[in-house]
Amino acid sequence: METSNEKSTGALLHLSVFTQYFFPLGNFIFPTIIWGARKNSSDFVDHHGRQALNFQLSMLLYTLILAMIAIPIFIFTLFKNIPTRAYINEENFQIENFNIENITGIVILGIMAVFIFGVLKMAEFFLVIYATIKAANGERYKYPLTINFIKATSQNNDLKTTEPELQAE
Question: Is 154 a domain residue?
Answer without folding.
Answer: no
